[in-house]
Design a protein that fits this description.
Helix content is about 55%, strand content about 5%. It has about 110 residues and is mostly helical. It starts with 8 loop residues before the first helix and ends with a strand.
Length: about 110
């Protein structure tokens, strides 16, 4: 039997991916929020929650998440990926997040 430690934020990241790929935006947001409750310095969770908040029309919440993500040490690569998508690069979403190379940026940690 497989046991998963519910205190790990990665569990909620993956759960959010699953909901997002099913276009269940609110459930994805809830999963990412639970992950952030366990690790408030997880840049990728902020970026992904911003996306699903944007899809739900919560632009202020999305902007707040992007700003929080940008304060996290090591999130420069993730920010560049998002900016690149806005400037004609590949669109980064929860459906292709791992495929476009965001995994390395996902491990960014908060600035002390």
């Amino acid at each position: 039997m497989l046991k998963i430690d519910p205190s790990l934020p990665d569990v909620y990241l993956l759960q959010g991916f699953a909901y997002c790929n099913l276009s269940q935006w609110k459930d994805a947001e809830d999963s990412y929020s639970q992950g952030l409750q366990r690790a408030s310095d997880f840049a990728a969770l902020y970026a992904l929650r911003a996306e699903v908040r944007n899809r739900q029309g919560n632009l202020l919440g999305a902007l707040s998440d992007i700003q929080a993500m940008q304060k996290i040490k090591g999130s420069d690569e993730l920010s560049a990926m998002i900016s690149g998508a806005a400037n004609g690069g590949p669109a980064v979403s929860c459906q292709n997040f791992l495929a476009v190379g965001a995994l390395g940026a996902a491990t960014a940690t908060a600035v002390p």
